[in-house]
């Protein structure tokens, strides 16, 4: 198969290169062993909260992150939490597992980003916060998955920019030269033969994220395609949209994002007549919410 960009033929080579790197990600994207031990313990049914708490305590970075998260307005617990054991009993094994896993994944990547420094991570954190805000708007139970799916939705872009920097820069240069003649997403798929959403899905599976989060990352541009938890994918989709409209985009101003219209029927069951006004209302709350959740976000950016 060949791909045509700017009248130039891109061979299957780019796609093969990406797939080859993904097949070797065990070598450079494996989680550190203390994290793997904690993850192993949280998935076993026979482990006690005390054992989990003491394992977390052994890792000061994870421990302080969990305490910061437990005390943040994300969960809105009324009393201050000082002890890991208290955080474990309040949050539960599954939440702890997801939080530890995500903190560890974020640390695997260089945070200098691409385009302008730090831009992709600023976008990712904002989408994480906004995804939680959108879920709150629909009055569902708030869990860590909302922030995590938003935080990691563009992990495929981070991967491309960090592990294929020359090719990624070449692609961005074409986008710049085209001046609006081609969208980022069309170009990305033509140039690499695979989308960042698909790459994101493969990475999330590699790290063993819950199925709903994997599908939210895979389908964040087309949430109605999510086989599991289409609501989560829809929240990420809307969050991505409002952050981009607000100017917190992963790339420059040339970045355009279209709303998947099929998302509306998915959400009307939760709120009658979900419409553009609701999107504006969410947009209006975004800056305040990013401020409010800064303590929670900083636990992921150590
Ligand atoms: Fe994306
Ligand atoms: Fe995004």
List the helices and strands and how they pair.
Elements: E1 2-5, E2 8-11, H1 13-23, H2 25-28, H3 33-43, H4 49-57, H5 60-70, H6 84-91, H7 93-107, H8 119-137, H9 144-151, H10 155-163, H11 165-178, H12 184-192, H13 196-206, H14 211-218, H15 230-245, H16 263-268, H17 276-292, H18 294-298
Helix pairs in contact: 3-4, 3-7, 4-6, 5-6, 8-9, 8-15, 8-17, 9-14, 9-15, 10-11, 10-13, 13-14, 14-15, 15-17
The protein binds fe (ii) ion (2 copies).
Characteristics:
302 residues; mainly alpha; Hypothetical protein af1432; 2 domains; 2 strands; binds fe (ii) ion
Structure described in brief:
With 302 residues, this protein is an all-alpha fold. It contains 18 helices and two strands.
Describe this structure in words.
With 302 residues, the chain is mostly helical. It folds into two domains: 30-107, no CATH class; 111-302, Hypothetical protein af1432, CATH 1.10.3210.10. It is 63% helix and 3% strand. It has 18 helices and two strands. Strands 1-2 form a two-stranded antiparallel ribbon. A hairpin with a 2-residue loop joins β1 (2-5) and β2. α9 crosses α15 (230-245) and α15 (230-245) crosses α17 (276-292). The protein starts with a strand and ends with a helix. The mean pLDDT is 89. Bound molecules: fe (ii) ion (2 copies). One fe (ii) ion is lined by residues 153-154, 196-197, 220-221. One fe (ii) ion binds at residues 123, 127, 153-154, 240, 250.
